[in-house]
Amino acid sequence: MKNKGIIIALSVVVAIIILGAVYTAFAINNRDISEAAKKPNPEEIQKNPTVNEVWGKYYPEHWQSYLKGKESDQKTKYGGNLRESKLEHFPYLRTLYAGLGYSEEFWEPRGHPYALEDINSVPGSRKKTGGACLTCKSPEVPALIEKYGDDFYRKPFNEMVKNVKYPIGCSDCHDPQTNDLRITRPALIKAFERQGKDITKASRQELRSLVCAQCHVTYYFKEGSKETTFPWDEGLKADQTFQYFEKRNLTEWVQPLVQTGLNKARHPDYELFVGSTHHSAGVACADCHMPYTKQGDSKISSHWWVSPLLNIEASCTKCHTQGADYLQKRVYQIQDEFKAVLDLASETNLKAVRTIEAALKTPGADQASIKRAQDHYRKAFWYFDWVSTANSMGFHNPQEATRFLAESIQYANEAIQAADQAMLKKQ
Ligand code: HEC
Ligand code: HEC
Ligand code: HEC
Ligand code: HEC
């Protein structure tokens, strides 16, 4: 009888110990970092907002996650974190980009911690635009823009780069005082203003994409001031940004083979994503690229910006009940289909270049027809480049990406016809 009492008492004690351990493990694993993050940041961060390592001292899990961006050895079918040459994968770009530094060197992106190292390794011929090239590479940039004004964009790259030490970091997206998400790049704030929109009114979910739209967008260096500018006044899309440049008669360089002024698109990731199935359903960049994941003993928003295919479980299955295998196959199917149309569009654009080149070399060719061919080609090239430089091989918005490729093929064909006519009509 007495023994039974002891056994029961012991069992209760053991049960309490086990429950306590389970609870502690649960509490650690689910420590709500966002609650902790609601407190003001420590003074050391507020005093050194651009020094990523200082933030790292107080947010060690986020820092470890950020440092994973230094990995550079994983490949998916069309993405991954390897720094590979785009010119090797897409040799036709050497011809389409003739006359631009991009025809000599053009890399796939890799992790944020590499941003400064990689821009520094680019040869001088690519950096004629000066300090402007640094706009999306370091958290020290907003203060430099304030200090130097337009000179920041105009001064030689080699002079301005001496002022920056840290690659893309915490204060690019977080307020050093409150830790709230914030927008630091004037180009995005101004692009919103010109459309009559106030970016400070953006919701939290919008900010989870807009912080990326500070850099993952197409831009150009404004006439005169050379200020980094988003050509969004007519709208975000390929046809609307084309109109923006046409209306203002702006071109970035004269392509020597077709002898007409063209503009170079730069990774319009945000622009393409807007209006996609996911965007329309309220999904943000951070939902797929910064999923809630375990880091050390805590759960945090992943700060390892990389292909979501390297961690489909975390990135997709929060919303999709299908397994990782199925989702991976779906993504590859979408990308393969997009790639097939991309290949057709590149071939047609290449043929347009060669035909215009031949017309230009033909003595007595009809100049009005050549001019028409060049006008069609300008459009064909912008639509093609806009879509092909956007990351994700079409996945972010397959329908729209394919539509603009189809239009590019149409305009390239019209350019070919007009150039053929120019040669037929020669005196
Ligand atoms: C629905 C999920 C999803 C959303 C939302 C999303 N992406 Fe992606 N993203 C992907 C997938 C899938 C890929 C393709 C990765 C691959 O091919 O390995 C990708 C690729 C990329 C890449 C290239 C990565 C690489 O390895 O080549 C970048 C950069 C990128 N996305 C940025 C963004 C930005 C910026 C936004 C918001 C404007 C965004 N993504 C929104 C799923 C998403
Ligand atoms: C490219 C933008 C970006 C950069 C750079 C960035 N973060 Fe974040 N961070 C985010 C986003 C987006 C969230 C999610 C916020 C939300 O959903 O409200 C987040 C959330 C957080 C949170 C809140 C807890 C959580 O995990 O959701 C902390 C703390 C944090 N980040 C710390 C850091 C630190 C430290 C650095 C630098 C090493 C950093 N962040 C760099 C975009 C960024
Ligand atoms: C301050 C500018 C800046 C901001 C803000 C920014 N990025 Fe990037 N991102 C870059 C640059 C520059 C690179 C390429 C770095 C390199 O290759 O050296 C890059 C690369 C990437 C890659 C490719 C990584 C790889 O391993 O291939 C992904 C994915 C990505 N960013 C997603 C995002 C997402 C999602 C956000 C928003 C939460 C974001 N970025 C915010 C500038 C930025
Ligand atoms: C935050 C939630 C969320 C996340 C994260 C998410 N998705 Fe989705 N996804 C959706 C919603 C919502 C839809 C639209 C469903 C519908 O219309 O029925 C969708 C649709 C899709 C579709 C169909 C697209 C179409 O045009 O019909 C595919 C494919 C897809 N998702 C793949 C992915 C992959 C791969 C990932 C991870 C990289 C991912 N999703 C991450 C919510 C999400």
TrEMBL record:
GO terms for biological process: anaerobic electron transport chain. GO terms for cellular component: outer membrane-bounded periplasmic space. Its main location: other. GO terms for molecular function: heme binding; metal ion binding; nitrite reductase (cytochrome, ammonia-forming) activity. SUPFAM superfamilies: Multiheme cytochromes. It is an enzyme of class 1 (oxidoreductase). Its EC number is 1.7.2.2. It holds the Pfam family Cytochrom_C552. It catalyses: 6 Fe(III)-[cytochrome c] + NH4(+) + 2 H2O = 6 Fe(II)-[cytochrome c] + nitrite + 8 H(+). It comes from the Bacteria. It is found in: Cell envelope. Belongs to the cytochrome c-552 family. This is nitrite reductase (cytochrome; ammonia-forming). It comes from Desulforamulus ferrireducens.
